[in-house]
Amino acid sequence: MNARRLLLLVVLAAVVAGGWYWQRFQSFADAPLAGVAADASLVVDRGDNLDKVLRTLRAQRIATGDRLYWQLLARQTGAAGRLQVGEYALGAGITPRELLLAMRDGKVVRRKFTVVEGWNIRDLRAALRKVPLLAQTTETMSDAALMQALGHAGQHPEGRFLPETYAWVRGDSDLDLLKRAHAAMDTALEAAWLSRAEDLPLDNPDAALTLASIVEKETGVAAERAQIAGVFVRRLKIGMRLQTDPTVIYGMGSSYAGNIRRSDLQTDTPYNTYTRNGLPPTPIAMPGKAALHAATHPAAGDALYFVALGDGSGRHAFSASLDAHNTAVRDYVQRYRAQARAEREGAASK
What's residue 281's pLDDT? Predict the structure, then answer.
């Protein structure tokens, strides 16, 4: 065999071997990782390299295969030396290529937390404490210490966090979420105040926030927000007391047991709008954007009273006079009693 034929055979063997190796590499790169558990994830900490990532995967009983393949794929995808810190989802069917691209681009797991319209500050803080994996840094803080940590020392926390859904990632803390919700409320309140209707009996944005919180708690149907705001605005203009139960309940604090009595309406607190004129000293809940808009853009009309219809719709009957309101209240009481009687009879027949 002459040297030329030998060289040709060597080249052919190299080509075949290279093709075989490349095929194996491609199969590795785009084949699902074996052993991935449901809802599994990978956490990459600061300073972690590819070898640490592979050890972490193996610790989760995930078959990683050839380390050389991973190094080659990391160079091919541009992920070598560029793994970003965070938590990455290891969904069923994820391939080495998809995982490296996710770590290169920082496509971390994004979780969601929703601040619910009408929550008070106690509700919000209790909900945050129950969020798994969210770093808890404010649990032992008083409300005053919390506001100081947020950079708003001396500000009452009630109503200061915008109801919305916020995305967060592993490593974030409850304080991080609260900062964002506080900034979002500042922005929403400013926008509502700057676009407010003329001749409002509100001296500043804080008054608008307080009124919006009352509207939020009084509204069962979104379409009625502006009407309810209109009732309260007209009462403020003529010096009539707001006489709204949610403020009384808020002033009762932990003593509220789910039922409000006549004696509660007569017991004076800074939040009892049956015994005191004007708005309460602070908001009583977290109002959403719609309630902020209603408080600063109340519906026109002459109604000074409203009462629930009691038909299960959540809607109200609005009245311009006390006589008409009393009639609406009697109608409500009759419907309530009829419904209660029907429920008792239905239970007795079972």
Answer: 97
